[in-house]
Write a structure and sequence with these properties.
By secondary structure, the chain is of the alpha/beta class. The longest helix is centred in the last third of the chain and has 17 residues.
Length: 224
């Protein structure tokens, strides 16, 4: 699999469950090693300089599990310290993000008392405590109600306006169509197609394009 993402764009990794989206994101974040190849972020190799790459990214994954007895306030301070956020910046950034995602009313409640949607909001905020230029968001709207999902979508649009680069993995066509500039279709660990949404829409629509690729791949695989 090979693809590139331009600075300041939202790139969608679209594929069914088990296609390899999460694995690709974890490799890009330096959490697991690929068997071969490399990932370059701002020209920096993940294989050779993982720590420097991780300073530049915010990674949101469904696999992040928050300990029940901690509070959002404590977790923010802890992750901000890990990310070497200056002390005089932590309070200001925490106030901004907690207000933005409605966490301020739950800042001192234990995670165990939070709804699944609020836990997702806390996880999102923790992934961006250090204001990184590149966001890797793996299925960011999974499990959210329509209001919370809209809040996340609006936030991603705001980040793009600020010049952030975003890689978004999802299996939801509508999410890609709403916010992505370009999309790559992953099936069975392979990038079968990559193009702009505008180019796709000139010929068909994203769902039809995906299933034409899916059917073609599956029929070819059956002949092997």
């Amino acid at each position: 699999m090979s693809f590139s993402v331009k600075k300041g764009e939202i790139f969608g990794l679209l594929g069914p469950n088990g296609a390899g989206k999460t694995t690709a994101m974890r490799i890009a974040a330096g959490l697991i090693k690929s068997n071969s190849g490399d990932v370059f972020i701002d020209g920096i190799s993940v294989r050779d300089n993982k720590i420097e790459v991780q300073r530049r990214i915010g990674f949101l994954s469904e696999e992040l599990r928050l300990e029940d007895f901690f509070t959002p306030d404590y977790l923010f301070n802890f992750f901000a310290a890990l990310r070497e956020v200056p002390k005089d910046t932590i309070h200001r950034r925490k106030a901004l993000l907690f207000e933005r995602f409605g966490i301020h009313n739950y800042a001192y409640k234990q995670v165990a008392a939070l709804s699944n949607g609020m836990r997702q909001m806390v996880s999102l905020v923790l992934s961006i405590v250090h204001d990184p230029p590149l966001l890797l968001f793996d299925e960011p709207t999974n499990g959210l109600d329509v209001v919370a999902a809209r809040n996340v979508i609006d936030f991603l649009r705001e980040m793009k306006e600020q010049g952030k680069t975003i890689i978004l993995s999802t299996h939801i066509f509508n999410l890609v169509e709403k916010i992505c500039d370009r999309v790559g279709v992953i099936i069975d660990g392979r990038m079968l197609y990559s193009d702009s949404l505008s180019a796709i829409n000139m010929q068909t629509n994203l769902e039809e394009k995906f299933f034409s690729l899916y059917d073609e791949y599956c029929s070819g695989k059956g002949k092997e």
